TrEMBL record:
This is DUF1735 domain-containing protein. The lineage of its organism: Bacteria, Pseudomonadati, Bacteroidota, Cytophagia, Cytophagales. The keyword Signal applies. Keywords: Signal. Residues 1-21 form the signal peptide. It comes from Algoriphagus taiwanensis.
């Protein structure tokens, strides 16, 4: 009898426990009354840079998918807005204008069915010249490293707006949503100076002149930077002799403006000054903090003329 009472007590406790657990996981929440928003999923970033050397043919282009409770049908318009940003050394960021301006508007009809999903999609592009004009600048005002901040504003048929100022971090950054509503488009200066070149050393600190070859290797982590095989371009070997060894000197191409950085194995740093540049020959002077220097005329390779370097 005692055993039966004990077993009955355990059963009663288990029923109470299960009942209480059930109540906590099935709350009476009116899901059907929840509001549903909308966002623009980024399907393809077709073009998100402007080429400084070819602004006339540069563009910002995306493929977007409208995601909402009606598979994209609540979208009324999408404003494409833009402003120009520049980093001023020692000052900070400068915006032109202070607030972004409208450059283009997508209509509901621009969103169409597609074979890959149930949501409506659109593909659009904004030319660099249109963006430059919208912010009140001209192509002559643009510099390499400038950024155009494009911002999208989705307006739906219920009078609501969705943009970067009211999107959650998860929707903006998570790969599934991919809806930042804001896209930075940098003005870049493509550089293609990697290669092995023949050169004439026209002058050295010891008075020697000679010919040789130099190899410029692109630095993967730093666009426009090239490690040179010998920062003295053979001058140590000719004048002492000595070997370049573990030195690490780079030539940096910032929109066709060349600089030299880095140090040799003794810790001396390097700089350069371009004397002249033609499609056939690039002539510059190198100098280090030990006082060594040289003037080098580097010949271009067949089919790959030098750009207008300075």
């Amino acid at each position: 009898m005692k055993m039966l009472k004990y077993s009955f007590g355990l059963l009663a406790m288990a029923l109470v426990f299960l009942s209480s657990c059930r109540d906590t996981v099935t709350p009476n929440v009116p899901y059907t009354d929840f509001d549903n928003g909308a966002y623009l999923r980024t399907i393809a970033r077709t073009s998100t840079t402007f080429n400084f050397f070819d602004l006339a043919n540069s563009k910002f282009a995306l493929t977007l998918e409208a995601v909402d409770n009606e598979d994209g049908a609540t979208v009324e318009t999408v404003e494409i807005r833009v402003r120009h940003r520049r980093l001023i050394p020692g000052v900070g960021l400068e915006f032109t204008p202070a607030n972004d301006v409208l450059v283009s508007t997508l209509q509901a009809a621009d969103f169409q069915p597609n074979p890959d999903s149930r949501f409506l999609r659109t593909t659009f592009e904004v030319s660099a010249t249109a963006a430059i004009s919208a912010v009140g600048l001209t192509p002559a005002d643009i510099e390499g490293g400038d950024v155009f901040e494009f911002r999208l504003v989705l307006n739906d048929k219920f009078g609501r707006r969705f943009s970067s100022d009211n999107v959650t971090t998860n929707v903006a950054g998570a790969p599934f949503y991919a809806s930042p509503f804001q896209y930075p488009v940098s003005v870049i200066c493509p550089s293609d100076l990697a290669g092995t070149y023949q050169f004439d050393h026209l002058e050295t600190f010891c008075g020697d002149t000679f010919s040789g070859s130099t190899t410029w290797t692109a630095v993967a982590s730093t666009p426009g930077a090239y490690t040179v095989s010998d920062g003295t371009f053979g001058a140590w070997q000719s004048c002492y002799p000595d070997t370049w060894g573990s030195g690490n000197v780079r030539i940096n191409d910032a929109c066709n403006r060349l600089t030299m950085t880095g140090t040799d194995k003794y810790g001396d740093s390097y700089s350069m000054t371009v004397i002249s540049s033609t499609p056939e020959v690039l002539t510059f002077e190198w100098v280090n903090t030990f006082g060594e220097f040289g003037t080098v005329a580097v010949k271009s390779n067949a089919g790959k003329p030098w750009p207008n370097l300075r």
